[in-house]
Write a structure and sequence with these properties.
carboxypeptidase, 11-stranded mixed sheet, AB_hydrolase_fold, 3-stranded antiparallel sheet, Rossmann fold, 19% strand, 477 residues, 13 helices, alpha/beta, binds 2-acetamido-2-deoxy-beta-D-glucopyranose, hydrolase
């Protein structure tokens, strides 16, 4: 046992990579005005290395969210493949905190261009979610991916509220570039730590909507393996590890007997933190995000070999946030692709003479996170009362934010059941199980890990379509 109990203690971890920022310069790009998205012509992506040919337009670039402090967020937006002018707008967020929605959501999960594992560039995703909606990916907050601030003191304030406020400012500025979407039906989706971001941003939009000049037509939120309520998330993680034979009966019993996850002081109990460390050390040997798949045995070693990192603050109830994504090898392809000078030029990040330092997860952001809501369940209640559609899904082979965590959290909401637990089907097979509550729909994905669309691309797309239409998933083969 080697718990370092200080202000911050770090559980057994694989080494992470922390990279300083390359110097941020503004790009000047071609003046390609397009009447239908007239503010955004210069962001139209016309030459992205390795990109498959497609018939829809996509845009990438910066939106300045704070002029005074010079904070600027990077986005990548894909119009829907067909009938873009009729389909809703969906914002997708990844978590961390500190991880990139471009590196994960857009190019490993649900975007039209997935990282090609031959490292040639990108390959077309025939299950892309932009078949159903106009898809917007945001690198949020500053410090994540290409997003930055020129005021270094801004980085001292990173937390949930800061992130929600900047994302909100982003949306209004983005609408100035894309006025056609200003009145479009709007949804927010995300996974993992975005389980906090998504309801928080939805609440802000809901509150600000009382001012009609700020109105955004938010209709619902979609959450995948979301961090929701720290105490229940912890309890679920521990019980899941035990029920899936990752830890011994003895370690599980020690945790159950000694850990009080509802306390503000969980980690000062060294018996508890030692047993939790033992649990996490078992997960270090496999892929916590996907229990039954292999780990990447790559070339890299030493400080460049990230994958999982588990940390927690002794003074808080925060869950040790485990960094990384499903496939550590894919993370490496992302890193090499997005650090290419020609790719950054194609995405309007840099002018082609230098490159910015892009990382898939920024550990400085992660470690410096100062404000995290212990639970977003009160926000769920408020959004349910406001009549927003809330769907929560869970890949049932994820050990990080396991299906048990989500079930404990949702059951503590005490919502009345509308339709009892039943299987849902995709391509004649059970895709998972579904429970409809009044106010919320919960579904599992059978055999999927943390980032569900990587594992179940076709079923995920069907599920996403179902969410947008509000029609439940098929209850028969
Ligand atoms: C990016 O960050 C890494 C790790 O800190 C560093 O080794 C590298 O030199 C940086 N690259 C640039 C272009 O600044
Ligand atoms: C990571 O975030 C820190 C601030 O928290 C920032 O100074 C740094 O430039 C970021 N690194 C990268 C590679 O974006
Ligand atoms: C603007 O969009 C229209 C509609 O898709 C397209 O036909 C046209 O080529 C675009 N114009 C420019 C300058 O990109
Ligand atoms: C940040 O500083 C760089 C270098 O001075 C400048 O080019 C860029 O426009 C600034 N960013 C913002 C959002 O003002
Ligand atoms: C509504 O929002 C607009 C735009 O931000 C602002 O100018 C106005 O003062 C707001 N009105 C009220 C009543 O807060
Ligand atoms: C592993 O190393 C070989 C030889 O250096 C290289 O060709 C290959 O691309 C590397 N693979 C990965 C996944 O980095």
């Amino acid at each position: 046992m080697h718990l370092v109990l200080q202000e911050l203690f770090v559980f057994s971890l694989l080494l992470a990579f922390i990279e300083p920022f390359a110097n941020a310069r503004n790009r000047k790009w071609s003046n390609n005005d397009n009447k239908s998205n007239f503010g955004a012509g210069e962001d139209l992506v016309t030459s992205l290395p390795g990109q498959p040919r497609v018939d829809f337009r996509h845009y990438a670039g910066y939106v300045t969210v704070n002029e005074k402090n010079e904070r600027s967020l990077f986005y990548w937006f894909y119009e829907a493949t067909t009938f873009a002018d009729e389909k809703p707008l969906v914002l997708w967020l990844n978590g961390g905190p500190g991880c990139s929605s471009v590196g994960y959501g857009a190019t490993q999960e649900i975007g039209p261009f997935l990282l090609d594992n031959d490292e040639r560039g990108l390959k077309f995703n025939s299950f892309s979610w932009n078949i159903e909606a106009n898809l917007l990916f945001l690198e949020s907050p500053i410090g994540v991916g290409f997003s930055y601030s020129n005021t270094s003191a801004d980085y001292d304030n990173l937390g949930d509220d800061f992130t929600a406020n900047d994302a909100y400012a982003f949306l209004h500025k983005w609408y100035l570039k894309f006025p056609l979407y200003r009145t479009r039906k709007f949804y927010i989706a995300g996974e993992s730590y975005a389980g906090k971001y998504v309801p928080e941003l939805a609440e802000l939009i809901h509150d600000k909507n009382v001012n009609t000049s700020l109105f955004i037509d938010l209709r619902g939120i979609l959450l995948g393996n979301p961090e929701t309520n720290d105490a229940e998330d912890w309890k679920g993680m521990v019980d899941y590890a035990w029920s899936h034979a990752v830890v011994s009966d003895e370690t599980h019993k020690t945790i159950i007997d000694s850990c009080d996850f509802y306390s503000d002081d969980t980690w000062s109990n060294t018996v508890c933190s030692g047993a939790v460390e033992e649990l996490l050390s078992q997960y270090k040997e496999i892929d916590i995000y996907s229990l039954y798949t292999s780990v990447c045995i790559g070339n890299s070693s030493g400080s460049d070999d990230k994958s999982t990192l588990v940390t927690a603050k002794s003074s808080s109830k925060m869950m040790p946030r485990v960094m990384g994504g499903y496939d550590p090898c894919l993370d490496d392809y992302a890193k090499s692709y997005y650090n290419r000078v020609d790719v950054q030029k194609g995405l309007h990040v840099a002018d082609g003479t230098y490159s910015k330092n892009w990382t898939i997860c920024n550990m400085t952001v992660f470690n410096g996170w100062s404000d995290s809501k212990g639970s977003v369940l009160p926000i769920y209640k408020k959004l349910i009362a406001a009549g927003l559609r809330i769907w929560v899904y869970s890949g049932d082979t994820d050990g990080r934010v396991p299906v048990l965590s989500t079930r404990y959290s949702l059951s503590s909401l005490g919502l009345p059941i509308k339709k009892a637990w039943r299987p849902w089907y995709h391509e004649k097979q059970v895709g998972g199980w579904l429970q409809e509550y009044y106010g919320l729909t919960f579904a599992t994905f059978r055999g999927a890990g943390h980032a569900v669309p990587i594992f179940k691309p076709s079923a995920s797309l069907a599920f996403f379509a179902s969410f947008l239409s509000g029609e439940p998933l098929p209850s028969q083969r």
